[in-house]
Amino acid sequence: MKIFFVSDIHGSIYYAKKAIEKFQEENADYIVILGDELYHGARNPLPIEYNPKEVAELLNEFSDKIIAVRGNCDSEVDEMVIKFPMMATYSMVLYEGKRLFLTHGHIYNENNLPKLRDGDVFIYGHTHIPKAEKNENIFIINPGSITFPKEDNPNSYGILEENVFKIKDLNGNIFKEINLE
């Protein structure tokens, strides 16, 4: 199974389309959205081609393949136009004998980890900073932001396949990678 990860679209139809293009190019089975799907947030500028309605319509076309969690910029009204559940603080997926704990990062984060077992994987967004590391036998991963990358990082997404998590820029170049074994 191949899983595509994206975070912090923030209502940009331009970057939502890029994410879907990459999902299709990667031939992934599922899309995990780590929050902040539609709204740009009060701290962010308007993104390129800001159009939350179009983003919702595009994502809805893939609703049977999406696992999503709520970000700090998401609200109940967003779920009225989205055809997949996206208001949970976290979700968990079992993958190759490991628990993937999926969250946005504004509640659970590196300073407030949920109870995880050795070898489990904590995957979040929110900071817009890509990360792939192991800390005390827990894997900590952030695919970065597709729309608003920070700290001179590129717009990015993640791919999990065969126990390897790769963080890629929009040209498909891998710039962070971690083996989950």
Furnish the topology, listing elements before pairings.
Blueprint: E1 2-6, H1 13-26, E2 30-33, H2 52-60, E3 66-68, H3 76-79, E4 90-95, E5 98-103, E6 121-123, E7 131-135, E8 138-142, E9 156-161, E10 164-169, E11 174-179
Parallel strand pairs: 1-2, 2-3, 5-6, 6-8
Antiparallel strand pairs: 1-9, 4-5, 7-8, 9-10, 10-11
Helix pairs in contact: 1-2
Indicate the CATH architecture.
4-Layer Sandwich
- Helix proportion of residues, in percent? 10-25%
**What summary fits the major beta sheet?**
6 strands, mixed
Going across the biggest sheet, name each strand in turn: 3-2-1-9-10-11
The unreliable regions are none
Domain unit count: 1
| Relevant CATH superfamily | Metallo-dependent phosphatases
Basic shape: globular
Assign the CATH class: Alpha Beta
The count of β-strands is 11
Q: CATH topology, which one?
A: Purple Acid Phosphatase, chain A, domain 2
- If you average the pLDDT, what whole number results? 96
Protein name: Phosphoesterase
EC number: 3.1.4.-
GO molecular function, one term: hydrolase activity
Cofactor: a divalent metal cation
What does it look like?
The two termini are 16 Å apart. The chain has one domain: Metallo-dependent phosphatases (Purple Acid Phosphatase, chain A, domain 2, 4-Layer Sandwich), CATH 3.60.21.10. 15% of the residues lie in helices and 30% in strands. The protein has helices at residues 13-26, 52-60, 76-79; strands spanning 2-6, 30-33, 66-68, 90-95, 98-103, 121-123, 131-135, 138-142, 156-161, 164-169, 174-179. The longest helix is centred in the first third of the chain and has 14 residues, at 13-26. With 181 residues, it is of the alpha/beta class. The protein is built from 3 helices and 11 strands; from the N terminus they run E-H-E-H-E-H-E-E-E-E-E-E-E-E.
